[in-house]
Design a protein that fits this description.
This protein has 337 residues and is of the alpha/beta class. It folds into 2 domains: 195 residues, 3-Layer(aba) Sandwich (Rossmann fold); 125 residues, Orthogonal Bundle (N-(1-d-carboxylethyl)-l-norvaline Dehydrogenase, domain 2), CATH 1.10.1040. 45% of the residues lie in helices and 18% in strands. The protein contains 13 helices and 9 strands. It has a 9-stranded mixed sheet. The longest helix is centred in the middle third of the chain and has 22 residues. The chain is globular and about 50 Å long. The C terminus is likely disordered.
Amino acid sequence: MKIVIAGAGAIGGYLGAKLARAGADVVLHARGPHLAAMQADGLRVIGEADGEWTVRPQVTGDLASIGPADVVVLGVKAHALTALAPSLTPLFGPETVVVSTQNGIPWWYFESNAGELTGLRLERVDPGGVVAAHIEHRRVVGSLAYFATDLAGPGVVRHIEGNRISFGEPDGTKSERAKALAEALIAAGMRCPVTTRFRHEIWVKLLGNLAFNPLSALTGGTLEELVRHPDTSRLVRELMTEAEAVAARLGIELPISIEQRMAGAEKVGAHKTSMLQDYEAQRPMELEAVVGAVIELGERLDLPMTATRAVYACAKLLDAHRGERVVVKEWRLAAGG
């Protein structure tokens, strides 16, 4: 099985490193200093229980040079898919599988099996339909990552916690291709359940992401702080309640309560969400697929999204000022301040 990691950053790089260490046929795609560092010195993984280690898989910045693959794992954030999708065509053979790893509502969610909303395209998730136009729906297997990693520097992935990634077909079947994907990653040391209720699992994870991610970026708070502070805790419940109402209108009955979801987040402890990490690193935040898409659905379904709209508006403005903060910081450094 030839696996290409299209976007070997924190998530994709970790998966690629684990696969390479297990002897899988894997190619990593990256750009810039991260690509140069991996080409020169390999990909180093730190923070694992068995110490740090380095792998030297094939690494490239040119997807067209790889040739057809059996599996393409999309390792970039949701907002980067529009730019990536058109360049994937050289990787596709007749049966190539594409694995989505993005947070939030994926671009393929309403392509099929979505009831009366089948065929709906969310503009905030797939502007202009570019992603859907370049990745055939039949190729997609969904995945959700439940592990935390970050890029400690070019060519270095830091593993923080967790080792689970789940897979599911958009139509709810338990396919042989999903099982094969899981087996490859299980051999690499990951926990990989294959579920027939993947759409439900999307909403369970989204319930937390929609509430905790933007609030953490706005406040700097960790998961346990957001849950324990009385005012932010109340706001988290409001956000989750609005998301739960949207899910219910889509026929999704969540298998976990809001209180259980909050208790689970509190147990994670002093963890910074991926959105807070992106904000602190001056990277674009994954707002549209996680928050904007739910608001777009709420509008279509005539549901009030008062709390979600307010948090989204504040987070959007914060993200818009991201570049300005960099300029101010550099000016202060230049001025000796």
